[in-house]
Design brief:
The chain is mainly α. It is built from 5 helices and 3 strands, in the order αααβββαα. A 3-stranded antiparallel β-sheet has the order 1-2-3, with no helix packed on it.
């Protein structure tokens, strides 16, 4: 009985991080600070995010010796710090694990740094999949 109580208390003190699977209709509210930043519209962001992370805040993809994290698939090779690449420049001044939580405030701040430095071409889906026919990425509220 004592171990059950201890386990219960630990689960309250340290809740498990849950992945948030966003929808294209949740994105406009969630990413409103990015609307128009660098000339990029929210429908374009919806397209890019769908093709890079599938709207999953906890998406992680290993890619040529580095790992890309979170909704925006930000690389630990340059933008955030991880034990995998300790020599990362960590331009966004954050642990890569912070890109996997549901608080997107720091993710958006990092995305703005990427846009200011590399532009929208950092996200490869931009040119290949998200340059035309963006109407499908708008949320139609009934």
């Amino acid at each position: 009985m004592m171990s059950f109580v201890l386990l219960f208390l630990v689960s309250i003190a340290f809740p498990a991080t849950q992945a948030k699977q966003l929808t294209k209709c949740e994105l406009p509210q969630t990413l409103k600070d990015l609307d128009g930043y660098g000339g990029i519209t929210l429908p374009k962001w919806a397209c890019i995010i769908f093709h890079t992370s599938g709207f999953d805040t906890q998406a992680m993809v290993k890619n040529n010796g580095s790992t890309e994290y979170g909704l925006f698939q930000i690389s630990n090779n340059f933008w955030c710090k991880s034990s995998q690449i300790p020599q990362s420049r960590n331009v966004c001044d954050m642990a890569c694990d912070k890109l996997l939580d549901d608080d997107l405030t720091d993710d958006v701040a990092c995305v703005k740094k990427i846009l200011d430095s590399k532009g929208i071409d950092y996200w490869l889906a931009h040119k290949a999949l998200c340059t035309e026919e963006l109407e499908q990425w708008r949320c139609e509220m009934l």
